[in-house]
Amino acid sequence: MREAAFVKQNKDKWATFENALSNKTNIAPDVLSDLYIEITDHLSYAKTFYKGSNTEFYLNSLAAQAHQKIYKTKREAKNRIPEFWKTEFPTLFYHHHRELLIAFLVFIFFAFVGAFSAANEGDFVRSILGDGYVNMTLENIEKGDPMAVYKQMGEFNMFLGITINNVRVALMAFAFGIFLGIGTLMIMLQNGIMLGSFQYFFYEKGLLWESARTIWIHGTIEISVIIIAGCAGLVLANGMLFPEPIRGWNLSKEVSKTD
Protein backbone atom coordinates (compact mmCIF):
# COMPACT_ATOMS: atom_id res chain seq x y z
CA MET A 1 0.00 0.00 0.00
CA ARG A 2 1.27 3.48 -0.87
CA GLU A 3 2.06 5.70 2.10
CA ALA A 4 -0.51 8.32 1.10
CA ALA A 5 -3.25 5.71 0.93
CA PHE A 6 -2.17 4.27 4.28
CA VAL A 7 -2.34 7.71 5.92
CA LYS A 8 -5.72 8.53 4.33
CA GLN A 9 -7.18 5.21 5.49
CA ASN A 10 -6.13 5.60 9.13
CA LYS A 11 -5.76 9.34 9.83
CA ASP A 12 -9.18 9.62 11.48
CA LYS A 13 -8.29 6.90 14.00
CA TRP A 14 -4.97 8.59 14.74
CA ALA A 15 -6.68 11.94 15.26
CA THR A 16 -9.23 10.34 17.60
CA PHE A 17 -6.50 8.73 19.63
CA GLU A 18 -4.45 11.93 19.74
CA ASN A 19 -7.47 13.88 21.01
CA ALA A 20 -8.06 11.23 23.66
CA LEU A 21 -4.46 11.58 24.86
CA SER A 22 -4.92 15.31 25.24
CA ASN A 23 -8.26 14.77 27.05
CA LYS A 24 -10.22 16.62 24.37
CA THR A 25 -12.72 13.80 23.85
CA ASN A 26 -14.26 11.04 25.95
CA ILE A 27 -14.15 7.56 24.45
CA ALA A 28 -15.37 4.21 25.74
CA PRO A 29 -12.49 2.35 27.45
CA ASP A 30 -12.79 -0.69 25.19
CA VAL A 31 -12.62 1.47 22.07
CA LEU A 32 -9.65 3.39 23.40
CA SER A 33 -7.84 0.17 24.29
CA ASP A 34 -8.42 -1.18 20.78
CA LEU A 35 -7.16 2.08 19.28
CA TYR A 36 -3.94 1.89 21.29
CA ILE A 37 -3.27 -1.64 20.08
CA GLU A 38 -4.05 -0.59 16.51
CA ILE A 39 -1.71 2.41 16.74
CA THR A 40 1.19 0.17 17.75
CA ASP A 41 0.32 -2.19 14.88
CA HIS A 42 0.35 0.73 12.46
CA LEU A 43 3.71 1.85 13.83
CA SER A 44 5.16 -1.61 13.17
CA TYR A 45 3.75 -1.51 9.64
CA ALA A 46 5.20 1.97 9.03
CA LYS A 47 8.62 0.90 10.34
CA THR A 48 8.58 -1.96 7.86
CA PHE A 49 7.31 -0.25 4.70
CA TYR A 50 7.84 3.49 5.25
CA LYS A 51 11.06 3.49 7.24
CA GLY A 52 12.34 7.02 7.93
CA SER A 53 9.10 8.65 6.74
CA ASN A 54 7.07 11.36 8.48
CA THR A 55 4.35 8.77 9.03
CA GLU A 56 6.72 6.60 11.04
CA PHE A 57 7.91 9.56 13.11
CA TYR A 58 4.33 10.68 13.78
CA LEU A 59 3.11 7.23 14.87
CA ASN A 60 6.23 6.68 16.97
CA SER A 61 5.64 10.00 18.73
CA LEU A 62 1.97 9.15 19.30
CA ALA A 63 2.75 5.71 20.70
CA ALA A 64 5.53 7.13 22.90
CA GLN A 65 3.18 9.74 24.37
CA ALA A 66 0.61 7.10 25.18
CA HIS A 67 3.20 4.79 26.72
CA GLN A 68 4.68 7.54 28.89
CA LYS A 69 1.29 8.62 30.15
CA ILE A 70 0.03 5.12 30.84
CA TYR A 71 3.17 3.65 32.37
CA LYS A 72 4.57 6.74 34.03
CA THR A 73 5.75 5.95 37.55
CA LYS A 74 3.08 7.03 39.99
CA ARG A 75 3.53 7.92 43.62
CA GLU A 76 2.13 5.15 45.76
CA ALA A 77 0.00 5.86 48.79
CA LYS A 78 1.70 5.60 52.18
CA ASN A 79 -0.55 2.71 53.20
CA ARG A 80 0.22 0.75 50.02
CA ILE A 81 1.93 -2.18 51.79
CA PRO A 82 -0.72 -2.62 54.54
CA GLU A 83 -3.43 -2.31 51.88
CA PHE A 84 -1.81 -5.05 49.81
CA TRP A 85 -1.83 -7.54 52.69
CA LYS A 86 -5.24 -6.42 53.95
CA THR A 87 -7.15 -6.31 50.65
CA GLU A 88 -5.28 -7.20 47.48
CA PHE A 89 -3.62 -10.42 48.63
CA PRO A 90 -6.83 -11.99 50.06
CA THR A 91 -8.71 -10.86 46.95
CA LEU A 92 -6.33 -12.89 44.79
CA PHE A 93 -7.35 -16.03 46.68
CA TYR A 94 -11.01 -15.16 46.12
CA HIS A 95 -10.52 -14.75 42.38
CA HIS A 96 -8.42 -17.90 42.04
CA HIS A 97 -10.16 -20.17 44.55
CA ARG A 98 -10.71 -22.79 41.84
CA GLU A 99 -6.98 -23.19 41.18
CA LEU A 100 -6.30 -23.21 44.93
CA LEU A 101 -8.85 -25.98 45.44
CA ILE A 102 -7.37 -28.02 42.58
CA ALA A 103 -3.85 -27.67 44.01
CA PHE A 104 -5.08 -28.71 47.46
CA LEU A 105 -7.05 -31.72 46.19
CA VAL A 106 -4.19 -32.91 43.97
CA PHE A 107 -1.72 -32.70 46.85
CA ILE A 108 -4.00 -34.47 49.33
CA PHE A 109 -4.94 -37.15 46.79
CA PHE A 110 -1.32 -38.05 46.11
CA ALA A 111 -0.53 -37.97 49.83
CA PHE A 112 -3.10 -40.76 50.22
CA VAL A 113 -1.62 -42.48 47.17
CA GLY A 114 1.78 -42.36 48.85
CA ALA A 115 0.42 -43.79 52.10
CA PHE A 116 -1.52 -46.51 50.27
CA SER A 117 1.52 -47.46 48.19
CA ALA A 118 3.74 -47.61 51.27
CA ALA A 119 1.20 -49.87 52.97
CA ASN A 120 1.07 -52.31 50.06
CA GLU A 121 4.63 -52.24 48.74
CA GLY A 122 7.46 -52.96 51.17
CA ASP A 123 10.21 -51.14 49.28
CA PHE A 124 8.10 -48.13 48.29
CA VAL A 125 9.23 -45.95 51.19
CA ARG A 126 12.89 -46.64 50.40
CA SER A 127 12.36 -45.77 46.73
CA ILE A 128 10.86 -42.42 47.75
CA LEU A 129 12.87 -41.38 50.82
CA GLY A 130 16.11 -43.20 50.00
CA ASP A 131 17.91 -46.06 51.75
CA GLY A 132 20.18 -43.71 53.67
CA TYR A 133 17.36 -41.84 55.39
CA VAL A 134 15.32 -44.99 56.09
CA ASN A 135 18.29 -46.88 57.56
CA MET A 136 19.33 -43.93 59.70
CA THR A 137 15.77 -43.50 61.02
CA LEU A 138 15.48 -47.21 61.81
CA GLU A 139 18.72 -47.00 63.80
CA ASN A 140 17.41 -43.97 65.69
CA ILE A 141 14.18 -45.84 66.47
CA GLU A 142 16.16 -48.73 67.90
CA LYS A 143 18.10 -46.26 70.05
CA GLY A 144 14.81 -44.85 71.37
CA ASP A 145 15.16 -41.44 69.70
CA PRO A 146 13.36 -41.61 66.31
CA MET A 147 13.55 -37.85 65.80
CA ALA A 148 17.30 -37.64 66.41
CA VAL A 149 17.96 -36.53 62.84
CA TYR A 150 16.20 -33.25 63.57
CA LYS A 151 18.18 -32.68 66.75
CA GLN A 152 21.64 -33.26 65.29
CA MET A 153 21.50 -30.34 62.86
CA GLY A 154 20.93 -27.62 65.41
CA GLU A 155 17.97 -25.25 65.39
CA PHE A 156 19.49 -22.62 63.09
CA ASN A 157 20.92 -25.06 60.56
CA MET A 158 17.68 -27.03 60.48
CA PHE A 159 15.67 -23.82 60.01
CA LEU A 160 17.97 -22.65 57.23
CA GLY A 161 17.95 -26.00 55.45
CA ILE A 162 14.18 -26.35 55.63
CA THR A 163 13.65 -22.75 54.46
CA ILE A 164 15.95 -23.12 51.45
CA ASN A 165 14.27 -26.39 50.46
CA ASN A 166 10.78 -24.89 50.83
CA VAL A 167 11.67 -21.86 48.75
CA ARG A 168 13.13 -24.10 46.05
CA VAL A 169 10.05 -26.35 45.93
CA ALA A 170 7.65 -23.37 45.95
CA LEU A 171 9.52 -21.64 43.12
CA MET A 172 9.49 -24.85 41.09
CA ALA A 173 5.76 -25.35 41.72
CA PHE A 174 5.10 -21.85 40.41
CA ALA A 175 7.63 -21.65 37.58
CA PHE A 176 6.78 -25.09 36.20
CA GLY A 177 3.32 -23.75 35.48
CA ILE A 178 4.89 -22.49 32.26
CA PHE A 179 4.72 -26.09 31.04
CA LEU A 180 0.94 -25.71 30.72
CA GLY A 181 0.42 -26.74 34.35
CA ILE A 182 1.82 -30.24 33.90
CA GLY A 183 5.07 -29.31 35.65
CA THR A 184 3.18 -27.83 38.60
CA LEU A 185 1.03 -30.93 38.96
CA MET A 186 4.15 -33.10 38.87
CA ILE A 187 5.65 -31.11 41.76
CA MET A 188 2.41 -31.52 43.72
CA LEU A 189 2.40 -35.24 42.90
CA GLN A 190 6.00 -35.73 43.98
CA ASN A 191 5.67 -33.89 47.28
CA GLY A 192 2.26 -35.37 48.06
CA ILE A 193 3.52 -38.94 47.60
CA MET A 194 6.62 -38.13 49.65
CA LEU A 195 4.52 -36.79 52.52
CA GLY A 196 2.11 -39.74 52.46
CA SER A 197 4.81 -42.39 52.40
CA PHE A 198 6.82 -40.52 55.05
CA GLN A 199 3.92 -40.36 57.48
CA TYR A 200 2.92 -43.99 56.85
CA PHE A 201 6.48 -45.06 57.60
CA PHE A 202 6.20 -43.63 61.11
CA TYR A 203 2.63 -44.90 61.49
CA GLU A 204 3.82 -48.41 60.72
CA LYS A 205 6.42 -48.09 63.48
CA GLY A 206 3.82 -46.84 65.95
CA LEU A 207 5.31 -43.35 65.96
CA LEU A 208 2.73 -41.35 64.02
CA TRP A 209 1.83 -39.03 66.89
CA GLU A 210 5.44 -38.43 67.91
CA SER A 211 6.48 -37.68 64.33
CA ALA A 212 3.47 -35.40 63.87
CA ARG A 213 4.35 -33.40 66.99
CA THR A 214 7.92 -32.86 65.79
CA ILE A 215 7.42 -32.39 62.07
CA TRP A 216 4.10 -30.57 61.79
CA ILE A 217 5.20 -27.70 64.00
CA HIS A 218 6.70 -26.21 60.85
CA GLY A 219 5.12 -28.67 58.40
CA THR A 220 1.76 -26.88 58.43
CA ILE A 221 3.33 -23.73 57.03
CA GLU A 222 5.50 -25.70 54.58
CA ILE A 223 2.60 -27.63 53.07
CA SER A 224 0.46 -24.48 52.89
CA VAL A 225 3.20 -22.64 51.02
CA ILE A 226 3.63 -25.50 48.53
CA ILE A 227 -0.12 -25.61 47.86
CA ILE A 228 -0.30 -21.83 47.40
CA ALA A 229 2.69 -21.94 45.03
CA GLY A 230 0.96 -24.75 43.16
CA CYS A 231 -2.12 -22.54 42.88
CA ALA A 232 0.05 -19.76 41.42
CA GLY A 233 1.53 -22.21 38.91
CA LEU A 234 -1.96 -23.28 37.81
CA VAL A 235 -3.01 -19.63 37.46
CA LEU A 236 0.03 -19.09 35.23
CA ALA A 237 -0.86 -22.14 33.14
CA ASN A 238 -4.50 -21.07 32.88
CA GLY A 239 -3.43 -17.64 31.65
CA MET A 240 -1.31 -19.24 28.94
CA LEU A 241 -3.92 -21.76 27.83
CA PHE A 242 -6.96 -19.49 28.03
CA PRO A 243 -5.79 -15.87 27.79
CA GLU A 244 -8.57 -13.42 28.40
CA PRO A 245 -8.70 -9.97 26.78
CA ILE A 246 -8.50 -7.07 29.17
CA ARG A 247 -12.02 -5.72 29.15
CA GLY A 248 -12.98 -2.45 30.68
CA TRP A 249 -9.41 -1.14 30.77
CA ASN A 250 -9.92 2.57 31.22
CA LEU A 251 -7.06 4.12 29.29
CA SER A 252 -8.54 7.59 29.54
CA LYS A 253 -8.64 7.19 33.32
CA GLU A 254 -4.98 6.15 33.41
CA VAL A 255 -4.10 9.15 31.22
CA SER A 256 -6.02 11.57 33.39
CA LYS A 257 -4.20 10.33 36.51
CA THR A 258 -0.90 11.52 35.13
CA ASP A 259 -2.10 14.96 34.00
What does the model show?
The chain contains 12 helices and no strands. Helix 2 packs antiparallel against helix 3 (54-71) and helix 9 packs antiparallel against helix 10 (182-204). It has helices at 3-21, 29-49, 54-71, 80-95, 97-120, 124-129, 131-142, 148-152, 155-175, 182-204, 208-241, 251-258. Residues 245-259 have low confidence and may be disordered. With 259 residues, it is mainly alpha-helical. It is elongated. The protein folds into 2 domains: 3-75, no CATH class; 97-241, no CATH class.
Secondary-structure topology with pairs:
Blueprint: H1 3-21, H2 29-49, H3 54-71, H4 80-95, H5 97-120, H6 124-129, H7 131-142, H8 148-152, H9 155-175, H10 182-204, H11 208-241, H12 251-258
Helix pairs in contact: 1-2, 1-3, 2-3, 5-10, 5-11, 9-10, 9-11, 10-11
Query: What is the distance, rounded to the nearest whole angstrom, between the alpha carbons of the first and last residues?
Result: 37 Å
Number of helices: 12
Number of domains: 2
Total number of beta strands: 0
Biggest β-sheet description: none
Q: Percent of residues in helical segments? A: over 70%
Unreliable residue runs? 245-259
Instruction: List the helices and strands in order.
Output: HHHHHHHHHHHH
Structural class: mainly alpha
Shape: elongated
**In what range is the share of β-strand residues?**
under 5%
